[in-house]
Design brief:
Blueprint (H helix, E strand, L loop, with lengths): L1 E5 L2 E5 L7 H8 L18 E4 L2 E4 L12 E3 L12 H9 L8 H14 L5 H7 L9 H18 L1
Parallel strand pairs: 1-5
Antiparallel strand pairs: 1-2, 3-4, 3-5
The structure holds FE2/S2 (inorganic) cluster (2 copies).
């Protein structure tokens, strides 16, 4: 048994050390918001935060996440409401099919955590997640708006 700290809750996981963290999150912890896309660390669909840093869970073994704080899309909202990135996503009506969006939102949240006021260039450089529906313009606008919301709340 392995213990994983996911969204502030301890989960007892029966997994081999080398199981990709994504499967532990989805299949064993039952948190299906994090998606499988490429399985190769290329598309970002499986993005989570590990101790606050953007991480691809499809290529990370469970053993590497032990003792660290995992944040998935299910853990962004709080009792106070949606995360600023989620609020902005709703305002900008970003998703199309939605498949890439939890990874995109996690990537944006990680970006704003490290850099609350990113420049246009920094947003473009840091947001490398792939979207087959082509929502990139809406994502860009939503990140700008999320920075405003976050700034107003702090
Ligand atoms: S599924 Fe992990 S990066 Fe594509
Ligand atoms: S919204 Fe469809 S893949 Fe991004």
């Amino acid at each position: 048994m392995t213990t994983l700290l996911i969204n502030g809750t301890q989960h007892q996981i029966d997994a081999e050390d080398d199981m990709p963290l994504l499967w532990a999150i989805r299949d064993l912890a039952g948190l299906s918001g994090t998606k499988y896309g490429c399985g190769m660390g290329l598309c970002g669909a499986c993005s989570i935060m590990l101790d606050g840093k953007l991480t691809f869970s499809c290529t990370l073994p469970v053993s590497a996440a032990q003792g660290k704080a995992i944040t998935t899309i299910e853990g962004l909202a709080t009792d106070k409401g949606l995360h600023p990135v989620q609020q902005a996503w709703v305002e900008q009506d970003v998703p199309q099919c939605g498949y890439c969006q939890s990874g995109q939102i996690i990537a944006a949240a990680a970006l704003l955590k490290q850099n609350p006021h990113p420049s246009d260039e920094e947003i473009r450089a840091k947001m490398s997640n792939l979207c087959r529906c082509g929502t990139y313009q809406q994502i860009f606008a939503a990140i700008k708006r999320a920075a405003e919301i976050q700034g107003a709340q702090s």
